[in-house]
Amino acid sequence: MDDTSTNIDQSTLDELAQIAARYPQKRSALLPMLHLVQSVDGRISPAGLTACAEILEISEAQVSGVATFYTMYKRRPAGEHHVGVCTTALCAVMGGDLLLERAEQKLGIKENQTTPDGKISLERIECNAACDFAPVMMVNWEFMDNMTPAKADDLLDKLAAGDEVHSTRGARITSWRQAERVLAGFPDGLADEGPTAAGASLVGLEIANERGWHAPDPNNLPEPAQSEGEKK
Predict the structure, then answer these.
(1) Does the global pTM surpass 0.90?
(2) Which of 114, 176, 179, 200 would give a disulfide with 121, using CB separation of 3.0 to 4.6 Å?
């Protein structure tokens, strides 16, 4: 990469070492360490790559191999807010491709690009395990459920204006870099803010509560029925 700029300082190096110390085999810390690098530099910078390699005592090629394998790690700076649009399976059926096209038109960019002002970056993302809320978008990895083109327009307008936005199943939206710091293992105190489940996800639980159903007591399970062959 041509851009060698970095914001990594001694405090960042100390936090990277702190993450590595959490694991019996410190190379297991690479994924959260890369998230911390992104929280500081907005991408996997050359300096961040080198720092991870030195702290973990592995080669830069090994670090780069991981950073280029997972799509959550960016080689170019993401925007202040990173927007993902799911276009896999059910989300596609429910209009995910239309949402992505609408977002591209609204922002004036294509997927994997960032608006000129650096406010919003856009990505086509794979399944986010939220099929009961399809189609879904994500902002800084927070869910935005049951989206429509009109909702997408409103969401992007608010993000661009710096207005407060709340996830439909989670906390208020901060920024992509702050979300990356959380993924690195440094909580922001917002984990319990907002609902974590809703709608279709809770239907089965609601029916069970209405009918008095409950899971078997694991300490008092009935004996399994024997087959005819076992009885003989």
Answers:
(1) no
(2) 114
Q: How far apart are the first and last CA of the chain?
A: 72
Structure tokens at 222: 């009935």
- Alpha-carbon distance 217 to 133, whole Å? 32
Residue 50 token pair: 């080198």
Name which of 105, 111, 101, 94 is nearest 146 in CA terms.
Answer: 94
Residue 193, pLDDT score: 82
- DSSP class of residue 72 equals T
For residue 38 the two structure tokens come to 């992104």
Task: Locate 90 and state its tokens.
Answer: 């059910």
* Alpha-carbon span 196 to 153, nearest angstrom: 24
Task: Please give the radius of gyration of the chain, using alpha carbons only, rounded to the nearest integer.
Answer: 22
**Of 46-60, 128-142, 197-211, which range is least confident?**
197-211
CB neighbour list of residue 194: distance below 8 Å, 6 or more residues apart: 166, 167, 169, 170, 171, 172
